[in-house]
Prior knowledge:
Elements (H helix, E strand, L loop, with lengths): L1 H21 L6 H33 L5 H19 L1 H12 L4 H16 L8 H19 L6 H38 L4 H17 L4 H8 L3 H21 L1 H13 L7 H6 L5 H17 L17 H13 L4 H29 L12
Amino acid sequence: MGNSKSKAKAKKKRTFKQFLKDKDINISAKTYFVDAMSGMAQGLFASLLVGTILSTLAKYLGMIDVPFFIRIAHLIGKAGSLASAVTGAAIGVGIAVALKAPMLVTACAAAVGYFANSYPGQPYAAGPLGVFIAVIFAVEFGKMVSKETKVDILVTPLVTLGIGSCVAWLTCPPIAIAMNWLGSFINSATQLHPFAMGIVISVVVGIILTLPISSAAICASIGIAGIAGGAALAGCCAQMVGFAVASYRENKWGGIVSQGLGTSMLQMPNIVTHPQIWIPATLASAITGPMATMIFKLECNGVAAGMGTCGLVGPIGCFSAMTESGTLTPYAWLGMFCICLFTPAVLSLLFSEIMRKLGWIKEGYMKLPG
């Protein structure tokens, strides 16, 4: 009797596993922290980051006092604004595609992503991390019920949107609170001695830039400015330029452009698998931060401080801030070149090559997907 019960239980377990396999649901760390995170990074790049690049281009193109250029700038700026506005939806689609979701589930994931990206609201929202969590649950439950009923056109959206909204409702407020805490921590670090402030802000904001949370939103919300903003800029540039240069062996010039002018977040799936690859860029940021505050006294304000070299928004923001404060000198130009490009590139390459020689970083560890 006992044996028959255990056999029935084992059969039921096998049946559920087969159901998950039939639905293409693979519950594993690789699925969610490598594949899904890669989809999130692709969606973020295609929306917010490209939108920011276009908006920055439009801003400076519009300064040319020629009607043709003004009209073109208006169109480019509008495209940039719209691209940024659908960040959550783009991330949702990216994650859904990475999880091999059916078409209807993918469409619903866009709606879930849009909702989670702005929930619970200003000044802090859950952002990409909130989207990541909510969309994963929405997609996996949506896949479970997809094409299981005769009214699939109603059941699948209701389940996908319902689960996604509930998960966002539960998880996004705590994530927003954590964002608020990070903002307060960074804000308190601005009161430190310039040397210590340079290290702390550069490292912390740089790490936030690479994580699936918004360093630009945090910098804007706390109103970071002056040399504290310069330290944040140094950390963000170190991450983006650092990963772009350190991973050149694996990704060539495509990696230079996508990470150096796009986002270092593209490396998050690789960081999850091999966290040691984060060391070179982080060490570089710990050096360039105090260089920015103590030697060059670079200044940057608000959103630009948390953007790094994405579309050159950070360096342009530094240029604007120092122009307004009257501190834009040839020495400041040298500082921007050293902090935003040259020094993080050299340091990250040096540290990564040492780690490769020691066998801590191996060929392929920083290979981008696609």
